[in-house]
């Protein structure tokens, strides 16, 4: 929990190495990579390997910053939204729509965000093991045909692509952005706000409900002034 007067920091550990982010002098965010064992990155310890280690270090920190930037970039055009949530036809092959709000689609998007971090990609059985629990299913309920259907529509929508000559898939840049945007909007915006609007008044902060009530009151005033009647 972040409290007033406390300066937050973020630490990511990989074996004996770590990336730390914190505010320097309370102004700018500092990202610092500390490497204790170059062998963890496939680089030797001799001084002649310093240049290669620097490249690995910069690539690592840039990837962290890229993920953070993407997580805050929710811009999605209307055309792209309809393209993702509607059916697609690619080279004569039809892919069903990834409907926003559908539980299966939400689970798929949540898992794609996780699979983006796998350097070697994922297999169909990995999808089964992660998606089934999110839906309350036993993994055995997800047959190979059901998995193939989901993989096919994710691929035709351009969210994943198959690694040549393997049975593995990787999440595309497009797939990562779409999955992150969709899953976060549903989990952090729509569900909490609908809960505030529709549940018992004592359950949530009433700021949103009060704002909607004021808006509705002003709309009713305009109706009255224009001598209009709202539909029964």
N- and C-termini, Cα separation: 47 Å
CATH architecture annotation name of the largest domain: Orthogonal Bundle
Main beta-sheet annotation: 3 strands, antiparallel
CATH topology of the largest domain: Arc Repressor Mutant, subunit A
Description:
There is one protein chain. 49% of the residues lie in helices and 14% in strands. The strands form 3 sheets. It has a 3-stranded antiparallel sheet, covered by helices on one side. The chain has a two-stranded antiparallel ribbon with strand order 4-5. Strands 6-7 form a two-stranded antiparallel ribbon. α4 packs across α5 (144-156). It has 2 domains: 9-72, no CATH class; 78-184, Orthogonal Bundle (Arc Repressor Mutant, subunit A). It contains 7 helices and 7 strands, in the order βββααββαααββαα. By secondary structure, the chain is α+β, with helices and mostly antiparallel strands. The longest helix is centred in the last third of the chain and has 26 residues, at 173-198.
Topology:
Elements: E1 9-14, E2 17-24, E3 28-34, H1 50-72, H2 78-85, E4 88-90, E5 93-95, H3 103-115, H4 124-134, H5 144-156, E6 160-162, E7 169-171, H6 173-198, H7 207-225
Antiparallel strand pairs: 1-2, 2-3, 4-5, 6-7
What descriptive keywords fit this protein?
232 residues, alpha+beta, Arc Repressor Mutant, subunit A, 2 domains, 3-stranded antiparallel sheet, two-stranded antiparallel sheet, 7 strands, 14% strand
């Amino acid at each position: 929990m972040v409290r007033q007067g406390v300066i937050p920091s973020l630490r990511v550990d990989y074996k004996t190495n770590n990336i730390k982010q914190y505010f320097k002098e309370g102004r700018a965010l500092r990202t610092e990579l500390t490497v204790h064992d170059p062998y963890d990155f496939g680089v030797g310890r001799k001084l002649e390997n310093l240049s290669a280690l620097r490249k690995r270090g910069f690539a690592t920190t840039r990837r962290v910053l890229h993920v953070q930037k993407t997580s805050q970039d929710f811009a999605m055009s209307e055309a792209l939204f309809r393209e993702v949530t509607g059916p697609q036809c690619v080279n004569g092959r039809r892919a069903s729509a990834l409907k926003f709000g559908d539980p299966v689609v939400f689970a798929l998007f949540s898992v794609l965000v996780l699979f983006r971090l796998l350097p070697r990609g994922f297999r169909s059985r990995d999808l089964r093991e992660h998606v089934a629990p999110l839906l309350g299913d036993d993994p055995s309920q997800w047959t190979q045909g059901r998995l193939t259907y989901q993989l096919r529509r994710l691929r035709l929508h351009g969210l994943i692509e198959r690694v040549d000559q393997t049975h593995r898939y990787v999440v595309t840049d497009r797939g990562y952005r779409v999955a992150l945007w969709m899953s976060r909007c549903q989990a952090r915006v729509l569900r909490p706000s609908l809960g505030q609007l529709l549940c018992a008044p004592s359950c949530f902060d009433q700021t949103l409900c009060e704002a909607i009530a004021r808006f509705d009151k002003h709309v009713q005033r305009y109706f009255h002034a224009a001598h209009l009647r709202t539909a029964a």
